[in-house]
Protein: Glutamyl-tRNA(Gln) amidotransferase subunit A
Amino acid sequence: MSEDIFITEERIEGADDGPLAGKTVAVKDNISTEGVRTTCGSKMLDEYVPPYDATVVSRLKEAGATIVGKANMDEFGMGTTTETSYFGETDNPAAPGHVPGGSSGGSAAAVAAGEADLALGSDTGGSVRCPAAFCGVVGIKPTYGLVSRYGLVAYGNSLEQIGPFGETVEDAAALLDVIAGSDERDATTREAGDDANYADAATGDVDGLQIGIPTELLEGADEGVVETFWDAIDDLEDKGASYHEVSLPSVEHAVEAYYVIAMSEASSNLARFDGVRYGHSGGYDGNWNETFAKAREEGFGDEVKRRILLGTYALSAGYHDKYYKKAQDARAWVKQDFDEALSEADVLASPTMPVPPFELGESLDDPLKLYLADANTVPVNLADLPAISVPAGETDGLPVGLQLVGPAFGEERLIRAASALA
Ligand code: GLN
Structure:
């Protein structure tokens, strides 16, 4: 089992004591670990060994955790199934024969299989919440700026955050306690999480909680997923919460806006992988243009190439206003809609994924189908807000996740509400 979960299985021992002493953690392979290979699931970085730790890794070590391996992922975080990894696909321990979700599929699978107590992933458009939902575990996408991205290999840096996985809400919250907080090495971090106590928030108290349900996030979702979602909402109602419908009209443009922004940022971020500054080298044969082209042709997989091409196109002179600027306008609209909806409710609830886990291989040739499966997760990244995915039940034996979204730096509220379901 561990072979398809971990790319590198090397134990990194943390301090002798601390809040995570005795706990094992799997770390997504786009998070830098000093002296231990960090591949991003790509041939491009097959042999890359970082000379420093990401801030979150230093914090894990100080907290006494033992890192048990670098977890498999979609290449450079680009995917929803963990099938685009250069190192092969990861099976879903909760639903064998199905994808574990992506892009942090190895991290979620490690927790679901009991290979690690906890795990770290990164979420640019759903990559913590999707695999949490598909593998039947808990995943948190923190507010933009709560967790340092220093040492995270960037995919779409205006959208992404490192987030924790656990078998329970309390476990994931305890890991968030360790990694959250400002960092002088990442100027986008805020001090909001410095004094928070997330694990203590997992009280399960939802008495008086007002849940807003955005009708747009139920449209087009699988029937069994929607039924399971309503069962979980009924459960929260029995425990003292109430719900009403809200509307997020802008989310119909969120997937398009997300993909234009994410691919544009990716095309710029991945320019450094040319075989000279970073990454796989195809060898120098007297012509630098051909040397760079060969390194990138050999080093990147098809999905990464598709995104670099589309992102470069969206940013190019003449198209910038038509695509990139328009996507930024849509992003502002999405943010505004969330602010309004959250002024009428404490949290917003939806299915995390509109579909249950795909069978392995089922969606490989259909990128559009995969992009559309991100409909409920990407709006949250566009709005910079926090969200949690918690197991809601099953449909036909396949795990279904419930997503709760809160106001900026409202993680404690999400943890309190989600812990009522566990
Ligand atoms: N599925 C989305 C994408 O492919 C999300 C990826 C992520 O959050 N890293 O871009």
